[in-house]
TrEMBL record:
<keyword id="KW-0812">Transmembrane</keyword>
<feature type="binding site">
    <location>
        <position position="174"/>
    </location>
    <ligand>
        <name>Zn(2+)</name>
    </ligand>
</feature>
<feature type="site" description="Transition state stabilizer">
    <location>
        <position position="237"/>
    </location>
</feature>
<keyword id="KW-0325">Glycoprotein</keyword>
<keyword id="KW-0482">Metalloprotease</keyword>
<feature type="active site" description="Proton acceptor">
    <location>
        <position position="152"/>
    </location>
</feature>
<keyword id="KW-0735">Signal-anchor</keyword>
<keyword id="KW-1003">Cell membrane</keyword>
<keyword id="KW-0106">Calcium</keyword>
<keyword id="KW-0645">Protease</keyword>
<dbReference type="InterPro" id="IPR001930">
    <property type="entry name" value="Peptidase_M1"/>
</dbReference>
<dbReference type="GO" id="GO:0008237">
    <property type="term" value="F:metallopeptidase activity"/>
</dbReference>
<dbReference type="InterPro" id="IPR027268">
    <property type="entry name" value="Peptidase_M4/M1_CTD_sf"/>
</dbReference>
<dbReference type="InterPro" id="IPR014782">
    <property type="entry name" value="Peptidase_M1_dom"/>
</dbReference>
<keyword id="KW-0479">Metal-binding</keyword>
<dbReference type="Pfam" id="PF17900">
    <property type="entry name" value="Peptidase_M1_N"/>
</dbReference>
<dbReference type="InterPro" id="IPR024571">
    <property type="entry name" value="ERAP1-like_C_dom"/>
</dbReference>
Amino acid sequence: YSISIIHPKEYSALSNMPEEKSEMVDDNWKKTTFVKSVPMSTYLVCFAVHRFTAIERKSRSGKPLKVYVQPNQKETAEYAANITQAVFDYFEDYFAMEYALPKLDKIAIPDFGTGAMENWGLVTYRETNLLYDPLLSASSNQQRVASVVAHELVHQWFGNTVTMDWWDDLWLNEGFASFFEFLGVNHAEKDWQMLSQVLLEDVFPVQEDDSLMSSHPVVVTVSTPAEITSVFDGISYSKGASILRMLQDWITPEKFQKGCQIYLKKFQFANAKTSDFWDSLQEASNLPVKEVMDTWTSQMGYPVVTVSGRQNITQKRFLLDSKADPSQPPSELGYTWNIPVRWADNDNSRITVYNRLDKGGITLNANLSGDAFLKINPDHIGFYRVNYEGGTWDWIAEALSSNHTRFSAADRSSFIDDAFALARAQLLNYKIALNLTMYLKSEEDFLPWERVISSVSYIISMFEDDRELYPMIETYFQGQVKPVADLLGWQDTGSHITKLLRASILGFACKMGDREALGNASQLFDSWLKGSASIPVNLRLLVYRYGMQNSGNEAAWNYTLEQYQKTSLAQEKEKLLYGLASVKDVKLLARYLEMLKDPNIIKTQDVFTVIRYISYNSYGKTMAWNWIQLNWDYLVSRFTINDRYLGRIVTIAEPFNTELQLWQMQSFFAKYPNAGAGAKPREQVLETVKNNIEWLNVNRQSIREWFASLP
């Protein structure tokens, strides 16, 4: 591409390549011409006309790495500049390939619909994903910046240097960027446990998506713009990352790295398909990569591996809906997988590839003595679930209670996630899954707690309106979380992981109605309202949310709105938006929803974020849904029917669990049959709500009995 831009003389221009020359056209206009680019895809072309300021780092290889921001935000770009430098050098080294352009700029766009876009040489960002202020931002914000920066850096190789042949192989861009971002950040921030956090960010959440009948394969045929837009979803990103993690473990990290280098070299400045990547890894590892991995990319879903006896295992497709037909929609592979099964006995860990043609299952050649436990899928490295027959789950619950540290934190979170998913799919009694939470009074690790909070949030949301059962659930979890809440306290101290844990734990204590926690949140909120004290940065979000929920009135709401309008830091704005959405006063929620129509108050980029925040409020759940229905024509005219965020907003109905709500959803979708980019999300949300209704009928009784039987 040869690009030149004519622009007002007081502005500067940027594009993918460095500036070649700049000349005045007349008294007011200037023409900037850029160096001709390398061969690249149309979707990566970019230009910006701005009056921003830049901060610069240099890569080890001498490339200028700049971050462009509004002049008053310069300090908040320092962290992004540092992380860029560290991760850029790491990837040049890891991929054994120098970055292909003479420079790499990043720019923070004040109102930006997506999270970031990897335009070659000029990456655009939403401010929340690039600008970090150590005095005002939380540790989670810092991690977000590091992750998005690393994700976009990966794309400079996977996506830009080698581009997918067509959008059906989108995962070659997004799955890879989602996987390598964890390696990149782990290199720069070694004590953040990023290689385990991939479980929380990608593996566990997408295992829920991929157990629906309305999921889709990683490699999926797409032709229309709406279909292309809709595959920018959890399957392409998170399942892509998860299967790469499993593959790396199977063929070894060294051979995986070598295979990536072969692939990048072979297809530099060209297009590639999934089979090309498998070929490169096969060349590096001499293992049947294509034969194994095609079973994970060409059909949707994943298996549950069941352990019977001590070492026999069988596989079958895992579906959340126990009544669904597991052979549908038809798959040439019949929903069987070639599974690299990692397992550990006593002290050894190894991999056996479970061939999908072994219909009767396989026996692992384990060396088990005494009460040794055969751990299948340690650290949840494989993209499948594990169920144990016989009394093994009871044994695991006992082992957790007597000494939970005999299992790694990743294993503990894996047990919890598998058990609650298996119970939801009616493959395990809920009483067994709930027994696994008995040990939590002695759990002090981030990974398991984060997963417990996620796993039980489904039960919590299903029984929110059950006046008899919900208080029992609250009381139990208040008791389980109290020891670790007391241990952590309300001082914002400790390591990065401790700060993330504290925010999660205190937030959960508040959610479960713990009086002390809610009292502390309200106290901090009230002194903030009076202007007498600022809130510790890692507690801000939970204080804005629960302070507003617990003691927020109109005056508090108006003050929060003023602070939202005053602050220039986008990460702080986002927390305040959540606070505003947490008020119990429905008149204020109605006013808030109407404000969404005024981009001078709520930026266009934040409209769907706010609707989602309001839907998390039990007083706003139905209001948000009704508002979407009443304003659908307005939303379509403002965002277009092919906007993926508009398409996805219908998923706020996922907690619905009555026949009436289901009927209302079906009527709404029938009234507006053109779903655009929302076709898949509509299917998924209808399936989820039907599952919820069925789930309540089947499980209400046994869950009630478990909570009622507690001492």
